[in-house]
Amino acid sequence: MTGPVPLAGRVYLPDQFRARIFLATIAASILFAWITAGYQGIRAALTHPVHTLHSTQKVLPMFKTYLKIAWRNLWKSRVMTGVNLLGMTAAFTVALLLAMTVYSEFSYDNFHTNSQSVFQVYRSVNDRDRIKEMANLPMPANAALKNEAPGVKAATRVIGSSASLRVGDKEVEQFVSYVDADFLRMFTFPVISGSKAPLEGMSDMVLTEKLAHSLFGNADPVGKTVQVRTSGDWKPFQVSAVVKDVPQNSTIDFTCLQRYENYDNYEQCKNRWDNSMTDQYIQLENPAAAATFTQQIQGMVNKYYAGTIEDHRKDGAQPDANGNFIRLQLLPLKEVHFNPITGGSGRQFIYLLMAIACFIIFIAATNFVNIALARAFGRGREIGMRKVMGALERQLVLQLWSETLIQCLMALVLGLLCARLLLPFYNGMFRAGLSFSLLKDLHLLAYTATAFVLITVFAGGYPAWRMARFNTLQVLKGKLRVGSNNRLRNSLIVGQFTIAAALICCTLVAWQQLNFLRSMPLGYNKEEVISIPLDNKVQYEQAIQRLRNKLGSDGRVKGISAANVNMGRGNDGSMSTSMLSFMYNDHMITTHWRTVDYDYVNTMGMRLLAGRDFSPSFATDTNALVINEAMARILGGPEKAVGQLMPVSGNQPPMPIIGVVKDFNFESLKKTISPLSFTLSGRENLRYIFVKVGPGNLPASMHLVKQAWEEVAPGSTFQGSFLDENTDRQYNQEGRLSRIFISAAVLAILIACMGLFAIAVMAMAQRTREIGIRKVLGASVNNLVLLLSADFLKLVVLSILLAAPLAWYGMDRWLSDYAYRIHIQGWTFLLVAVIAVGIAFCTVSFNAIRTALANPVKSLRSLD
């Protein structure tokens, strides 16, 4: 058995190790509960052997009797049963959906046989002012790691680009992944037909089942030819194998594999260590060696990055404690999905879902406890009579607990049905992509069963134990007291409303931040510019010229340009950037790098601070730069920057700066504005056309552009979108978080109010005589309503006082990830207080008014 693998101060447990710990924990819990519950029976059975047989014969009839009595009691208190059942059904529904989401997230990449020994390699670089961690590596790093690093069993690069695939008359657009021959040896994507070593040849191609069926129907595709075009001519490739479709819980996704050497820029970059663009994975012979791998390969890193290291040293960067400027680090495969370095959103979001599920379950289970204890006043004589007739304490506990078990089982069944019905809506709202078949997983079933047992023990076990221990004589005399001053009930109500109020606070803060992100001016025209992604069926030069000819004379079109990178996330789903570093005046300058067409600044609505934009009138502009304000500040300011020569590449002459544009937010507002440079070079790489339209009737303008596109690029799919839509998609995570908070807050407050309503009904029923006396003595209805509501409203106010600092701390931590953020205002918590108190008052006052208006004569008739 493989034990825990220490990595960078953390311990990673292999799957089988975690599974055994999990199963052992469940077994120990069940064994402990069984021994505890059956201790007295086991002792009696060991002492009196004859009694064992006698007891066994009575078990089934006794259990059947318990269920009958439990059902009758539940039916007798239909309102309270309905409150409990409705609350628990809602809680189970939410918990099941969230549990499936969490389990799906934590199952990422578990299916790989070699998951314990496969790692992604990333760079850690000591810059002048910070440490940067980047997932991409240079192309030649693969061979260096495989041939020179100790203990590397296999290695592969992974990079992708869109391509057109053609078989006969059938043509489809696909995202092709380029990998090395070790790829299918390292990762478990089972081959179902064809070669078992399918990527040995340079012209080999591997398809997934779905794509193979799309291209070849039911025919066997192995050995057949597929024509592929990325940016140039069509090239033939032979299908060497078909693999199973990639599971949804795979970090690496593909439909088509080709050898890495077929990637477009391979020949230009295959030996360049200064150009990092590929994901790099390695498999170690001994996973335990990962802890020392970084130190063992440092000599190799210093060898190949010597020039870059020298540039960083000249720029004033400080080495780490071991004197290193650049390090190659390992990230375990199971961490790739979560790690921000590789584009993951971290585990915090998953932990948040787990916490919300627990909160909702706690609120619903609390209703059980409070209602059961409140009903104890009405069932006291029943319990007392049972004890007088000889009922044992454990029998009473089982009898009372069986009522909770029935309700929880009914709620669980209803929760499963509701979860099944709501799953499509849930997937659409939260982009979860879940399947109900997840519940067939034995581990998830074990988690669900364990949680169900714990919930029923908490919700029904404690009240049953308390009621079974009532003093018989006090009960029969009518002097029953469940607890001093209802401390437990009040504590649970405070806990419920603290969670609900905190969720409302988080909802308001998340909504304010999301609204701030969407409405903040970005420094360019995002409302009136349409972005059109180009697919592989379109030749850029031809398409943009035809579009200019078609729309150039239309007064509704104000400008047409293009770039290699989109603004925000377009309808094609892409969002990327390019970086370039070079030395200038003994300083390392790192800038975002964008290739654009003429009229880009005008089309995007940017503002020139100094110099001019690119112009066809100047032939030298093909080797010139336009930079942003942040880049100009490094060079002494906008006016000083214009005219300076930038040695961006050792193979090309320096590029003069001809213009400076005012800073604009070209990335998410989580980041500050970084240096940015525009160039006209390499126009063949432009992948997005931008059309600026007039401010009036934007839907009609979109229709105009779509019609023109269908004429200039027939057969190409139009994926145009306004830039404000693109920028909104950058905040899908924030939008999803806001929706989760809203849903959880609404559900939490509804369940808590249902419980409060039921508790208020029973609490006021116990004060009927008191109210009757007060009315006879002259108390008004208003005074009585305030009197009856005050105790509960005090608990709600206390809950808000507890929730406010907790919510403020949590959301302030969340907002700290944003370079541009709101500041949490005091009115947010005041509004939450008004909402919570108002809802609670409406819930309680309904019963209070009815009790206060009751005829006091009826109340005093039964007065002893």
Write a short abstract of this structure:
It is a multi-pass membrane protein. The chain is α+β, with helices and mostly antiparallel strands and 864 residues long.
Describe it.
The chain is an alpha+beta fold and 864 residues long. The chain folds into 4 domains: 62-108 and 344-482, no CATH class; 118-336, no CATH class; 486-519 and 731-864, no CATH class; 536-718, no CATH class. It has 28 helices and 25 strands. Strands 17, 18, 19, 20, 21, 22 and 23 form a 7-stranded mixed sheet that branches. Strands 6-7-12-9-11-10 form a 6-stranded mixed barrel. Strands 16-24-15-25 form a 4-stranded antiparallel sheet. The N and C termini lie far apart (74 Å). 37% of the residues are buried. The model is unreliable at 1-57 (pLDDT under 50). Residues 355-471, 743-851 form the ABC3 transporter permease C-terminal domain. Pfam families: FtsX, MacB_PCD. It is a multi-pass membrane protein. Residues 81-298 form the MacB-like periplasmic core domain. It comes from Chitinophaga parva.
